[in-house]
Amino acid sequence: MLSEIIEKQRKYFSSHETYDINFRILQLKRLKLQINAYYGQILSAFEQDLNKKEFDVVTTEVGLVMSEINYMIKHLKKLAKPKKVRTSIINFPSKGYKVYDPYGVVLIASPWNYPFQLTMSPLVGAIAGGNTVVIKPSRSTPNVTQVIKKIISVFDEEYICVITKEEDINEIFNTKFDFIFYTGSYTKAQELLAAQANHLTPMVLELGGKSPCIVDKDAKVDLSAKRIVWGKFLNAGQTCVAPDYVLVHSSIKDEWLESAKKYINKFFYNGDEVSDDFVKVINKTSLERLQGLIDPNKLYFGGKCRGQIMEPTILNNVTRDDAVMQDEIFGPIMPVLEFEDLDKELQTINELDHPLAFYYFGEDKENIEKVKLFSQFGGGCINDVIMHLTEKDLPFGGVGRSGSGLYHGKQSFYTFTHQKSIMQKSTKMDINIKYPPATKGKIKITKSIFKV
Hints:
By secondary structure, the chain is of the alpha/beta class. It has helices at 2-14, 21-37, 39-50, 54-80, 117-128, 142-152, 166-172, 186-196, 221-233, 253-268, 284-291, 342-351, 365-374, 410-415, 440-449, and strands spanning 83-85, 94-102, 105-109, 132-136, 160-162, 179-183, 203-206, 212-215, 245-249, 269-270, 273-274, 299-301, 305-306, 309-310, 313-315, 333-339, 357-361, 379-382, 403-404, 417-425. The chain is 40% helix and 19% strand. The longest helix is centred in the N-terminal third of the chain and has 27 residues, at 54-80. The termini are far apart.
């Protein structure tokens, strides 16, 4: 039962074994060995669950996880070392320290769209931080989940455990954890927050939203189409940071659409048929939802389905009132809107819920600065899409409705630890200025210290 697992993990955490940095590094190395050992089964599981082939599995799942593990093994000792900080004259003589404490028992709840990466990457941070971990993977990718269970089986249940039993899953949102890392939908995040309200559990929420992509009049048309087509249809559009819709300046829209169509054919088609290795839509319910978003009167390219594979689809002359613009698409449909005035579009976007990502294509330095400084979003790219999340020194996360909290690289370590502040005071002397009674002399000195 879940409650028994939590109790075991709390008892194990109290032993302080996970506090040891060498222990944490050893566990990261064990995780790396396990992933390599089960590599073939990982590939097979992805093909069964998502029709995802080796290149995509390496570049969007396993490779990113291995990169995180290698980074943490190399840098953990330095990251975890208590940091000395200066103390002010009012506490003389003293020393200040920042100590990075593990939270304790951590829940990682991961989604189906990148079921391996979005389970293992947070796990790397949780291990590095010295926590014990309960993992709840998605039920929509059962084969990947089974391989994750096999990989994690090298660890004792009191340290890291994967939850798949229905009764445990049903209880998990109501269970008290010391920290929660959740990746998924806004609706489920609301349920989680409501269920955890009594515990005031600290958590990271990685959600999504309608991430805009602007192609301005001075953008390099062909290159922007190439990069956007790749990013939009990666994983069949089932990517939280995919460009949800594309705003193209009216002066280049027709040329841009032709380039987009060219690259769709080049990347994803064999003759007239969509490639056999194009990722499938996760289930029939999602497929039906996506089909309902396609307006036949605005269909520019694609639109057909073969089983659970939906062709890369472009809708043209879309407006913000269309059905496809009401919620995050999360599928291989690219709505193209036309615009004239960049300032007006930026104002409109800022009035909407803050997106997880924002992409801008253009060469004008002033416009680039406008996007960087005055638009609110989790993260993004100028003249590219998605690739910002591959950089270790760029923390990844949302803002507002698209999420809260950050991870990747060293930020993962900081996310899964509490930064504890400690001041250590000398007992060799004691300055009396803070003690009553207040005198004119003390007031004069303190005013000088605080620049009053």
